[in-house]
Each structure stands twice: as structure tokens, then as C-alpha cells.
């Protein structure tokens, strides 16, 4: 199928892009990678009258560390996060673990993190990580620039706090301390399917006690989700001995946190090949396993800093 007719604008500055989007006489869509938008246009489920291509706005490209945050410009492609050292510290490891689950290399070479925030698919890895880490979305519009916390940005499937006349210019993520371990695991039917469920975690331990934990749930509700009840159950607990293998026994605190996340935090929606009960079981298992992955990651970081490379 071919998309319905549309006009095409190629602004060279953010101001020009905002001006194009501000023309309320026409329904407009922004394209950077276009990996979701173009398909929906071909199927005519989305019929913009104007497509604003932002690929020639140089100020939207590039990512850099600013203070204790990573600022990711709207044109930074998924593939930029694949090298583990592309972003410093544990945050870079988490992003590298997550990004390889996004579609396949041609998609990752064009799609963008900001585009994922604009599309707001419940199965987006980036969006759930952003909510769990307290990311911030930078927007530019006719009334100037503003920032929205990720927890307030996502309103439902494909619905956000971004106004139609606004452009996402960047996403800001907090850097993670070296005493933090990270984990990310995704479950899907085939390599090219959206995640049935995915979980990302960060785990900070001080003097053997879990001082902070963040749990991101992907495709576990109608929007990106942070498992706050499960986090509260773990925070302040002793880390203790870690299981030797990938399986976490039912009595372990990580397994209990998984059950809490599945029953109290998540609100999964049924889909083909994954009913609600099935999704809850997956959530419980993946939360426990990503917490164990994060604990082992932290232990390996400590060993590396102390010169033990066994």
C-alpha cells in the first residue's frame, strides 16, 4: 500500500521545525528514523497532512555528558548505544544490554531514542528505562522550551504529554554510580517480535545493604512502568549470598520482589500468545533474574576496580 498524500517539510533549525509543526491547519508528524511512522502511513492507520523531517537539524544530533546526566539528542540512533563504552559507567552497560533487543541492525541504524519517546509504544525498551531512571524529556514549542519528567510524560498507549506543536529535542538520563549494577532481559516469541515482557534493573548496594533499586517493566501495562512496590520491598534489605546459577529460589528476596512486581505493580494486557497470567509469570521470573544479573554485574565491577580479573 502507498500512504495517503502529504506535504513534506525539511527544516534546518529547531525554530523552523517548531514553526512547521505550529501550523494548526494541518495534522503534522515528525520523522527522524521513521521506523514506526512510515509503516503506519503505508497501512493508512496514520494519515498526516504534513511530515516534518528533522534529519537536517545539526543541533539535534550527538550525545554528551552534562554534569551528572547524559543528554541524548533527538537524532541519536539506537545503534550509537551498542558499544558498551559509548556511555560511561553502568548506564552505558544498561543501554548496551537493552539496545540489542530493539528490532534488528537496519532498524537500529535509523531509529532513535527520541523517536521511541515520541511514539510511546508500551513495548518500548527505552521508554520503560527512562521512567525507572527518572529521565527527562526536553521539548521545544511555540511558547519556548520545557522539560517533562518521564513519569509524567507517558499517558497511555501512543499518548504522551507532548503537544502537537512541540518537538522532542533531547532525552536526559541520570548517570549511575560505580557502586551500581545493572541488568536487562527480554522475552519475546521470535527475534523480530515486540517484547512480550522485558525488565531492566539497577541495584546499588552500600555496606552489604540495598540502598537503591530501580525496576523498569516493559509491555507490562498500557504505558512504561516502574515497579515501585517491588523496589520498596527490597530497599534496605541485606544483599546476602547470591545464587550460583540463573535460577532464583522462591524464598530469595529477588524472587519475592518478582512476585510483588507481577501482582502489585504490573497491569499487563492480554495479547496473542500471551494472556495476562502468562505475562505475570514472565514478569516474576525476569524481575528476579535481572536483579541477580545486576548484583553479579556490581560484584564484577568491584572486582575489576580492585584488580581481581578472575
UniProtKB/TrEMBL annotation:
InterPro entries registered for this protein in UniProt: CO_DH_flav_C, CO_DH_flav_C_dom_sf, Diverse_Substr_Oxidored, FAD-bd_PCMH, FAD-bd_PCMH-like_sf, FAD-bd_PCMH_sub1, FAD-bd_PCMH_sub2, Mopterin_DH_FAD-bd
Keyword Flavoprotein in annotation: yes
One annotated GO molecular function: oxidoreductase activity
Coiled coil spans: none
Entry keyword set: FAD, Flavoprotein, Oxidoreductase
Domain of life: Bacteria
FAD-binding PCMH-type domain residues: 1-178
Stated name of the protein: Molybdopterin dehydrogenase
Amino acid at each position: 500500500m502507498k500512504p495517503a498524500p502529504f506535504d513534506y517539510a525539511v527544516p534546518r533549525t529547531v525554530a523552523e521545525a517548531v514553526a512547521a509543526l505550529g501550523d494548526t491547519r494541518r495534522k503534522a508528524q515528525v520523522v527522524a528514523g521513521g521506523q514506526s511512522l512510515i509503516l503506519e502511513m503505508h497501512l493508512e492507520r496514520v494519515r498526516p497532512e504534513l511530515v516534518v523531517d528533522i534529519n537536517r537539524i545539526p543541533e539535534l544530533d550527538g550525545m554528551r555528558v552534562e554534569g551528572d546526566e547524559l543528554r541524548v539528542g533527538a537524532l541519536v540512533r539506537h545503534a550509537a548505544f551498542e558499544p558498551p563504552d559509548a556511555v560511561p559507567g553502568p548506564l552505558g552497560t544498561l543501554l548496551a544490554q537493552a539496545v540489542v533487543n530493539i528490532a534488528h541492525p537496519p532498524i537500529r541504524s535509523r531509529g532513535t531514542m527520541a523517536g521511541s519517546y515520541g511514539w510511546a509504544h508500551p513495548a518500548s525498551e527505552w521508554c520503560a528505562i527512562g521512567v525507572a531512571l527518572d529521565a527527562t524529556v526536553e521539548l521545544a514549542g511555540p511558547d519556548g522550551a520545557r522539560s517533562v519528567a518521564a513519569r509524567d510524560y507517558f499517558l497511555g498507549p501512543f499518548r504522551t504529554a507532548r503537544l502537537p506543536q512541540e518537538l522532542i529535542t533531547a532525552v536526559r538520563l541520570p548517570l549511575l554510580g560505580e557502586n551500581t549494577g545493572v541488568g536487562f532481559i527480554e522475552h519475546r516469541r521470535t527475534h523480530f517480535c515486540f517484547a512480550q515482557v522485558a525488565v531492566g534493573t539497577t541495584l546499588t548496594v552500600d555496606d552489604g545493604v540495598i540502598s537503591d533499586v530501580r525496576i523498569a517493566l516493559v509491555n507490562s501495562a498500557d504505558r512504561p512502568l516502574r515497579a515501585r512496590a517491588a523496589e520498596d520491598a527490597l530497599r534496605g534489605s541485606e544483599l546476602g549470598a547470591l545464587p550460583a546459577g540463573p535460577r532464583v529460589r522462591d524464598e530469595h528476596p529477588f524472587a519475592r520482589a518478582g512476585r510483588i512486581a507481577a501482582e502489585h505493580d504490573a497491569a499487563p494486557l492480554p495479547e496473542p500468545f500471551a494472556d495476562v497470567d502468562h505475562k505475570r509469570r514472565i514478569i516474576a521470573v525476569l524481575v528476579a533474574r535481572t536483579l541477580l544479573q545486576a548484583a553479579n554485574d556490581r560484584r564484577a565491577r568491584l572486582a575489576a576496580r580492585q584488580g581481581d580479573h578472575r
